[in-house]
Amino acid sequence: MSVIDTPRTVLNGVNVDALLGARVALESAPPAAAFTWKATAEWQDGVHTRTSINGFHGLGEDHRRERTFAIDTDHPPCFAATDLGATPVEVVLAGLAGCLGAGIATVAENRGVKLHSVKAVLEADMDLFGILGIDADVRNGFSAVRVNFEIVADASDEDIRAIVAQSQKRSAVFDILVNPTNVVVEVN
Amino acid sequence: MRKVTTLIVGAGQAGLAMSRELTARSIDHVLLERGEVANSWRTERWDSLRLLTPNWMSALPGMPYLGTSPDGFMSMGETVALLDRYGAQVAAPIEANTTVQEIQSIDSGYLVQTDRGSWKCRTLVIASGACNIASRPRWSSELPGKIASLTPMDYRAPDMLEPAPVLVVGASASGAQLAREIQLSGRDVVLATGEHVRAPRRYRGLDIMHWMEACGIFGRRIEDADDARRARRVPSIQLSGGDPAETLDLNSLQDIGVRIAGRAMGCSSGTIQFSGALANVCALADLKMNRMLGEIDAWIDEQGLVGAVEPVERFRSTELPDDPLLSLDLARAGIRTVIWATGYRPDYRWLGLPVLTPRGELRHDRGVVDAPGVYVLGLPFMRTRKSSFIAGVGADAAALASHLHDYLACASRAAA
Q1: How far apart are CA A72 and CA A50, in angstroms?
Q2: Domain segments of chain A: what residues?
Q3: Could you give the dihedral angle defined by the CA atoms of residues A20, A25, A26 and A29, in that order, rounded to the nearest 10 degrees?
Q4: Closest to B196 (Cα-Cα) out of B168, B226, B231, B238
Q5: Tens-place pLDDT, residues A117-168
Q6: Does domain A87-179 sit in CATH 3.30.300.20?
Q7: What is the arithmetic mean of pLDDT over B282-297?
Q8: How confident is the model over A81-109, as a mean pLDDT?
Q9: Are the C-beta atoms of residues A140 and A130 closer than 8 Å to each other?
Q10: Gap between the Cα atoms of B249 and B239, Å rounded
Q11: DSSP label at B326?
Q12: Inter-chain residue contact B276 with A177, CB threshold 8 Å
């Protein structure tokens, strides 16, 4: 993006010009596009863990934020737990909602569509026979995830559906959920 | 050492069309062909394949289609005969059975080594095709050794496969056609599909290709695309040329018993894993198809053709299995063959010029390669959306021949 371009009117609060500029810049500098996301976590008590998030690596350097975000995960009373936070699997749903929402706003911005409201209801099914070790054929994780969007925007129903489809196509958390990832867990 | 002004590598539709254009400009040239005319069509296609474009589109510069079946689809034998006839008509100077081994840049142009001697030329046209190598995902090597692993370039007919279920990976034109043929042969097929492009074979009474040509979709220029690289990588449309021509899509495949799954993502201990994004890739394909049909409808309205053609039609959304497969234990499913229909790419191993990107793509601007006097023809969406079609190569050849002619004129003037 050069400075003489007329900045487009921002409809949804997403700086698409900056994102498109970053895309052009990163394409010619692939190492800068290699990001590493980080979190640190500490077990509190029972099944309560506090995860802290601040630094990350990207654009060729380490970054620190001004504040550290904390996410408490725990389990509800029916799991005989203290309920000091959402369950880890619910935080996964929050990640999916946040990622798809960001995608929808960005794609809509890029396509010149003003969003008035974007609401989502997320559901994930899980059979406890997996984590409880009752049935080896039942997986631990979700057997299905459903996301239901209600979107009010200055666009046709078809255009809204296309925005939601495109946001899935470009979503990191959607990809993390639908595709396998190598995960290595080690102990120092 | 033989000398010629222009060497054309490849004697398919692209090389022959270029030969005609060079002859028209009195530029002496030779076509180097590793086999016979139309070698890829002759030796690298499965038996039942027919062109995906109707016969009226099998026209080349100076040779319109004059047959009696403009809406039919040519078999490979007929396609080879067409190109043989064209080669004779344009009197293309072909050196057959001559494989180019290496090309180097020299002061006055290029030095071309072949298995039948070397050549010197001032200009070079790469017309060796876009589909020399069948791509496979990197993890395809993880497949258990006892499973037969084929690409559409190895496949000929279902009877070469074991009488057992087959996994076809990829649902563009090749994968979808093979899935249908193999399922109909009595072997159950699982078809893994990532992003794909869907279209009805016929729409409002005419072949879809008629509308894509008429309303300007095929004529769309690469310089007008939002993202040229993405436009060039759009998968081929799920289509099949047949008699009669029928729509080929994930619905028609499921109707005959093919099981669809998401994109194949990996293989571990004999189990293939599929992406859980099947619903979204199908939704994207449905949306894009409807957008294209809407564009065609708008064009028909504009032209005042409503009433002269059949009414607007919309097709059922892609049906999704109730519980899409996420993994498949090949042994347990009895699968003995995997066919990788995961795209094709050109082979430039013989091209010793610094003109490739780190991804191995040729660096060129609409066919003018990033080396003096070097041109390429026949790549997908090279200049327009029909650049890789028999019907599209003529216009590209004319434009590039004219550039090549001017290049020679300038180079001579500079030397003088």
Answers
A1: 5
A2: 35-86, 87-179
A3: 170
A4: B238
A5: 999 999 999 999 999 999 988 999 999 999 999 999 999 999 999 999 999 9
A6: yes
A7: 97
A8: 97
A9: yes
A10: 8
A11: S
A12: yes
Q: Distance between CA B63 and CA B85 in Å, rounded? A: 9
Instruction: Output the six-digit token pair for B206.
Output: 């005419």
Q: Does B270 touch chain A (CB under 8 A)?
A: no
pLDDT of residue B245: 85
Average pLDDT in the B351-372 region? 94
Please report the domains of chain B, with CATH numbers, ordered by start residue.
2-132+346-415 (3.50.50.60), 135-340 (no CATH)
The number of C-beta contacts closer than 8 angstroms across A and B is: 33
Is A169 close to B195, i.e. CB distance below 8 A? yes
For B253-282, letters b (16+ CB in 10 Å) and e give bbeeebbbbbbbbbbeebebbbbbbbebbb
Helix (H) or strand (E) holding A51: strand A48-53
pTM confidence score: 0.91
- ipTM rounded to 2 decimals: 0.81
Question: CB contact, 8 Å: A179 with chain B?
Answer: yes
| Cβ-based contacts of B280 with chain A (< 8 Å) | 165, 168-169, 174
Q: DSSP characters for A64-127?
A: --SS-EEEEE---GGGTS---SB-HHHHHHHHHHHHHHHHHHHHHHHTT--EEEEEEEEEEE--
Contact B280 A180 (CB under 8 A): no
User: What is the chain B residue with the closest CA to A161?
Assistant: B287
- State how far the Cα of B133 lies from the Cα of B143, in Å rounded to an integer: 20
Which two three-digit tokens encode residue B39? 């070698």
